[in-house]
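#onboarding

Welcome to the new folks! Below is a worked example of what a typical request in this channel looks like: someone posts a single protein sequence, and someone else replies with the predicted structure as tokens. Don't worry about understanding the tokens yet, we'll cover that in week two.

Example request:
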Amino acid sequence: MNLDKSILKKAFSTMATAKAMTKLYEANFKIVSKYVHATSRGHEAIQIALAMQLLPQDYAFPYYRDDAMLLGIGMQPYDLMLQLMAKKDDPFSGGRTYYCHPSLRDADKPKIPHQSSATGMQGIPTTGIAMGIQHQEKEGLITPKKGGKTLK
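Example response:
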């Protein structure tokens, strides 16, 4: 298999960014966050590999340890830090939700419905979204897409 080196460079750069953010957060925990914060440490490679496959028409259901996935879909460290510190310019909620409970509807990124705090609770809304898409396709309300291209 011949892999484009630019993809590998992007993945490595994103992984290095995730690691640097983790080190920064852990070194400054008392200053950075007044509550619990868990990073994606140890999960960076798989999260970034997954994120790099997602397209704008896809849905993602990250949970509180999925910082690397968010970086992989194109969020910037600054964006994640705005949410961490509950700032009004936080792109997910304007600083109104607990850290790493993203919700996003940017045209160039996968859609992220608002998340529950309970670990593993992504399964219920994820199943609902999948069933809704399947129903719409069966009823001819939407045309199935793969890789951004309409399937015939």
